[in-house]
Design a protein that fits this description.
The chain is mostly helical. 75% of the residues lie in helices and 0% in strands. The relative contact order is 0.15.
C-alpha cells in the first residue's frame, strides 16, 4: 500500500492535467485498475490519440498479466469460473507479488484464494482512495517530491527475499538488464521484453541444472 498510494495520487493529478473530468478520472481507476496502463491512457487521451490506438497500447502494456495468471493458475485451478473472473479483475503487479510470495512460503492451503482476494481488495481500495485524493489535491503536490520512486522500492523488498536459487537470480538479472536497455522502447514494450527474457533465462538455467 505504501508503494501504491503515491502512484494513485500522481495518476489522479495526471488525469486532471490531461483534461479528463473528475468522474472519468475516477472511473479509469475502477474500470481499468492497472496503474501503468492508466498512466499511458491518460497521456494518450490528453494528446488526442484515437480510441483504437489507446486500446492497442493498453492491451500491449497489460500483456504481462498473462504471465502473472499463468504463474498463479496452479494455485487457483480448483476455483469456479466466477471466482477466477473476480480474481482476474483484482490481479495487479502488487497483488501478484504479495500472493505468489505467500503461496511459495505457505504452500497450497484450502483457503488460499481468500488471501488473494484480501490482498486484491485492499490494493483496490487504496488505489481508488488515492486516485480521488490526487484528483482533489494533486495539483498542489510539489514536483520535487519523488513519489514515483516508492513503487520500485516496494517491489525490490518483495522480490529480493524470493531470489533463493540460481535460476531465479539469473532470471532477475536478465530481466533487469533488458529492462534498463529497453527503457526507451515505445508504449512500455520494454517491460514485456524484460519479463519474457527473464523467464527464458531462468527456465534455461533451471533445465540445465535438472
Amino acid at each position: 500500500m505504501l508503494g501504491v498510494a503515491p502512484l494513485g495520487m500522481i495518476f489522479g493529478a495526471l488525469a486532471i492535467g490531461a483534461h479528463l473530468s473528475t468522474m472519468a478520472a475516477q472511473a479509469m481507476s475502477s474500470v481499468i485498475f492497472a496503474g501503468s496502463a492508466q498512466y499511458i491512457a491518460a497521456q494518450l487521451l490528453g494528446s488526442g490519440a484515437s480510441g483504437a490506438v489507446i486500446l492497442l497500447v493498453v492491451f500491449v502494456v497489460n500483456l504481462r498479466h498473462a504471465l502473472y495468471s499463468a504463474s498463479l493458475a496452479p494455485h487457483l485451478k480448483h476455483l469456479k469460473p466466477a471466482w477466477k473472473a473476480g480474481l482476474a479483475y483484482l490481479l495487479t503487479d502488487e497483488a501478484y507479488a504479495v500472493a505468489i510470495t505467500h503461496y511459495n512460503r505457505s504452500g497450497d492451503g484450502a483457503y488460499r484464494h481468500w488471501y488473494f482476494l484480501g490482498a486484491g481488495l485492499t490494493l483496490w481500495s487504496a488505489w481508488q482512495t488515492t486516485t480521488a485524493l490526487g484528483i482533489l489535491v494533486g495539483a498542489r503536490m510539489p514536483p520535487s517530491w519523488p513519489l514515483g520512486f516508492a513503487l520500485p522500492l516496494t517491489f525490490i523488498a518483495l522480490v529480493v527475499p524470493n531470489l533463493k536459487d540460481r535460476a531465479s537470480l539469473v532470471a532477475a538479472a536478465a530481466a533487469g538488464l533488458v529492462g534498463l536497455l529497453s527503457v526507451g522502447f515505445p508504449y512500455k514494450t520494454g517491460l514485456l521484453a524484460a519479463a519474457l527474457i527473464g523467464i527464458v533465462a531462468g527456465l534455461a538455467v533451471e533445465r540445465r541444472g535438472a
